[in-house]
Amino acid sequence: MDVSFQLLGSGAVRTNPDRMGPAQIVKVGGRVLMFDCGRNAGTQLAKAGILPHTVDRLIYTHLHFDHTADSVYFIFVGWVYARKNVLKIWGPKGTKNYVEKLVRPPHEVDIASRLGHDKPEFGLDPEVADIVPGSVFLKEDGYQVSAMQIPHGNILALAYKVETDDGKKIVVCGDGQPTPKFVEWTKGADLVAIECSGTKEFLATQPWGSWHATPPEIAKYGNDARVKRLVTKHFVMEDIAGDKNAAEKMSATIRETYKGEVHTGRDLLEIKL
Asked: Where are the alpha helices (DSSP H) in the chain?
């Protein structure tokens, strides 16, 4: 089965014209799984050659706004394009409530206008489910997706593992820190997409710094879990410290001790397994 990972947006909270907000896709055979829907995710899909109405599986890692910011555009433009399949959305507890409040209540005027010229309602309302961590919540021909909770301050955050029937394994993290259980859960993964917000020194200056892993911690995790390749992303330090080389410097630190491949995230980076 053909499997690939593509990073749509390698950035984080702050506006960065070179890095769009958190979003990535995993292609499994003919299916596109989208993880997070940050700033400009819909446009990034188009740049990757994928029209948004053809993506009908969206999975949130957590509900920080930088990971969900383009959801309205993605949902509505998919409706405008006339989805053929219902959009299904999964995420941590609170996702169902979030999406229900996001779609119809703020956009009654827009929806009424479009229905007024006989546009069908089909494709507007997603099917949404809150995920129970530790479960396999999606199983289709040739692959399955399971979820695990990871620590990320005071918000419920999940990581996801895509496993194919022929043995390929891709793990997508949002934000958070690796734990011993996470090491075991991701053992031998072909690829792990992991946030790398800043160095230990930088994170120590931020009130939320303890919510994120440092480059040496990421390297240790990669070795302990025997991960074949790491893709770093979510480079907050670039935006706050103003160091445009921060991402590459952090990758260099990871390479000092990590034995696998390190890919410094950039928008539209694609890796085929």
From this structure: 41-47, 71-80, 95-103, 108-115, 180-185, 200-203, 215-224, 236-241, 246-257
The number of CA neighbours under 13 Å toward the Cβ of 207 is: 1
**Of the candidates 178, 255, 268, the residue with the CA atom closest to the CA atom of residue 219:** 255
Centre a 10 Å sphere on the Cβ of residue 101 and count the other Cβ atoms it contains: 10
50-68 per-position pLDDT tens digit: 999 999 999 999 999 999 9
Tokens of 172: 């997508």
Contacts of 147 (CB under 8 A, 6+ apart): 131, 132, 133, 134, 135, 137, 158, 159, 160, 161
CB proximity list for 77: less than 8 A, separation 6 or greater: 42, 52, 53
Token representation of residue 51: 């029209």
From CA 32, how far away is CA 97, in angstroms rounded?
24
Q: What are phi and psi of 74, to 5 degrees?
A: -60, -45
- pTM (whole model) above 0.90: yes
> Tokens 């609170």 — which residue?
94
* Domains delineated in the chain: 3-272 (3.60.15.10)
Q: Can you list the pairs that 119-126 forms with residues at least 24 positions away whose Cβ atoms lie under 8 Å? A: 120/82, 122/83, 122/86, 123/53, 123/78, 123/79, 123/82, 123/83, 123/86, 123/87, 124/75, 124/76, 124/79, 125/86, 126/58, 126/75, 126/86, 126/87, 126/88, 126/89, 126/99
d(CA 239, CA 21): 12
Band (pLDDT 50/70/90 cuts) for residue 1 is: confident
